[in-house]
Specification:
- By secondary structure, this protein is mainly β.
- It has helices at residues 14-31, 159-162, and strands at 44-51, 57-63, 68-77, 85-92, 97-104, 108-117, 122-129, 138-147.
- Strands 1-8-3-6 form a four-stranded antiparallel beta sheet, with no helix packed on it.
- The longest helix has 18 residues, at 14-31.
- The chain is elongated, with a radius of gyration of 26 Å.
Amino acid sequence: MKKPIFIQNTPIDEKRISFIERIVSRLAMSIGESGNIKVITTPYPISNCVVGDDVSGPVLRYMFCASGHISSYMIHLGKAPKGGANISLLIESGEASVNNSFIMSTRQIQSKISTRVNSGDRITVSIDPIDKKFPITEVWISFLWTPLLKETSIKSFLIEDLEI
């Protein structure tokens, strides 16, 4: 059984006070002098799969309902495209649009990016085989999107509620 920190009706000695001060100073150091704390925000996967005899054109369309940023994406093709495939990432907003195109010559790519999106922005991912004699038959695509902290909800839980 643990020894109680404060025993009723007994004076607190210097040893006990120095122990409490040491614990409080360690807790203060873990928070940091600036008072900053670390918060975990979970990224949301945005994904789609298109399968067919000849997959080309838009393979993913998505509209963001809250501001945030895209941190990474992955594209997987059923088989490596002979001659390559042209990939187009178009992000449209009310004010402007950004188009990023590249050629994919492997079966799968993954890339870390840092692209900010606002509420109402739309993303369209399109694919077109460079050599039309070798059609693409399967496309998997996935993005990780994290909303800004002001867009998230804060909930409090007891530790007992989190244990499984």
